[in-house]
Amino acid sequence: MPLSLQISVLIPDCEALPANISSAFHSFSSYYLVRELPVYQLLEETFIESHVKKGNFYALSYNTKIDEENTIALLSSGQLILSLDKDTYEQLGLEGRPSLYNHKKAMRFVVTLDLTDKSLTPGTKRYQRVLSSLKDRLPLRYDFLLTKYNTGSDEDQTLIKLLSQYSYEEHKPAFSHHTLKNIPCPTLYPSDIQGKTLSCDPHHFLEWLGAVNLDISCENAADSFLSTYVCPEPQSSVSQALLCTVTGFISPENVFVLLQELRQYIDEPKFTPWISLTVHGFMDSPVSWGATEHGFLKGGENLYNFVCFKNQDYWLHMATGAQDGCPP
């Protein structure tokens, strides 16, 4: 998943935030919200050389609804993805294909531009035609989220020079954590991935994780009018658990660093039997898994979850909505 909105980490039998995991969270790259950025700026020669070709740069149109409006994403691979309504697509005159999630008539189209391809090198005929379409024929402007993993000072200067032409804000991903006390917790064994003998069923485990993240009681109290949900079996009581959440425009590289620190933590001699990492993607991103087209339909869900065990085994759960390609 190239573009992440929220990450949740659950560590059973842990009260204080481990130093290495805290450091990983706080090392997440800053991101920028820039207002009314012309799309053609992402194709300017200086921008392509300074950011696109060096990789680890991401952009996503902000507050654009994938099923109603034009949405745009720039991936670290250098692919610029434009998911366009029929009128915009026809006015731009760029080569694309009908969306996989049209109904009877094609009302949405997807244009993919590989900005690292030789045919789109600044100065070539194709580059000039694409630039003219986005700059002169139909000068699209949107609010954008931008981030780059592990930027250098020269690259920062180039980006700030671009942003200074527009209204923009710099943000750090919002981090929070709190300790849960005396919660029922499903029993998990790495060898029983289907939950047939020793472990909780994996689908029920994911449901339980969602309840914990939303602070929904899992005790099925007789006097509760809000929830009758109960923790799945087999289960045990955990005296304390640490729940961490970070929200923002988060790159896959930051997620990978966090995952490595979680694996290092659980490898140490502690009581923690497993650690869970859940990553939610943007509902209105034009892509979800790699460069696979993403649609909304009823919810736009796309997420994955790692459960890491002390023996370095792991479970990987991946979930999508109805308008998504199968995860890799």
Automatic annotation (TrEMBL):
It comes from the Eukaryota. GO terms for cellular component: multimeric ribonuclease P complex; ribonuclease MRP complex. GO terms for molecular function: ribonuclease MRP activity; ribonuclease P activity. GO terms for biological process: endonucleolytic cleavage in ITS1 to separate SSU-rRNA from 5.8S rRNA and LSU-rRNA from tricistronic rRNA transcript (SSU-rRNA, 5.8S rRNA, LSU-rRNA); tRNA 5'-leader removal. This is Ribonuclease P/MRP 40 subunit. It comes from Cyprinus carpio (Common carp).
